[in-house]
Amino acid sequence: MSNVVLTLGVLLAPWLVRRAGLLRTIPITVGGSLVFLVIMAFAHNIIIAALAFWMRAGLMMCSTPVTDKFCLELVPPDKRSVAHNILQMAWTGSWAVSTALGGWLIQKTGFTLPMVLTAAIYGIYLALFVLSFRHHPAMRHSGSVCPPTIPAQHD
Predict the structure, then answer these.
(1) Which among 64, 77, 102, 155 has the fewest CB atoms less than 10 Å away?
(2) 41 near 94, Cβ under 8 Å?
C-alpha cells in the first residue's frame, strides 16, 4: 500500500504545481503531511495510524520533486549536477542520523516523542521556507500557468 500511495504522490505533484504554483505546492504538501504526522504520534488505533502514515508519505513524496526542482533552479546550469549530489548527500546524511536518533528515542520513550520532535522540525522548516519566499512572485501564483521561478541572470 505504501508504494501505491508514494506513486500517487509523485503523480499528483505536477497537477498540484499547475494548480497552486511551484512554491505554494511545497508548504501545502509539507503542511498537510504535518497534520498526519501528529495524528500518527497520538493515534492509539493501528488503522488510524496506518492511514495517517500513508497520507503523510504521499504528501511528502509530492513535495520532494517540487523542492528539488526549485532548489536546482537556484543554481547555474553548469553546477546543477554537483548541487544535486550535495542535496542528496545532505538528505541521506540527515536521514542516517535521524534514523539512529529516532530508533534510540523510540526504544527509550515510545513513538510519540520522536514523531512530535519530527513534526516540530518540519514545522520550523515550513515556517522558514514560507518566510524566506513569501514575497517571491511564484508564491503568490495560483493560476494554471506557472511563472518562471527564478529569473535567469546573465553576467
Answers:
(1) 155
(2) no
Answer whether residue 83 is part of any domain.
no
Residue 6 falls within a domain, yes or no?
Answer: yes
Residue carrying C-alpha cell 511564484: 138
Q: Is residue 149 part of a domain?
A: no
pTM for this model (two decimals)? 0.78
Which residue carries 520533486 as its cell?
A: 65
**H or E element: which one contains 119?**
helix 112-133
Instruction: Identify whether 84 is part of a domain.
Output: no
Contact predicate 41/117, CB 8 Å: no
Q: Quote the domain boundaries for residue 59.
A: 2-74+115-140
Each residue's pLDDT tens digit in the chain (155 positions)?
A: 878 888 888 888 888 888 888 888 889 999 999 999 999 999 999 999 999 999 999 898 888 888 888 888 888 889 989 989 998 999 899 989 999 999 999 999 999 999 999 999 999 999 999 998 888 777 765 544 444 445 545 55
Distance of alpha carbon 126 from alpha carbon 145, whole angstroms: 24
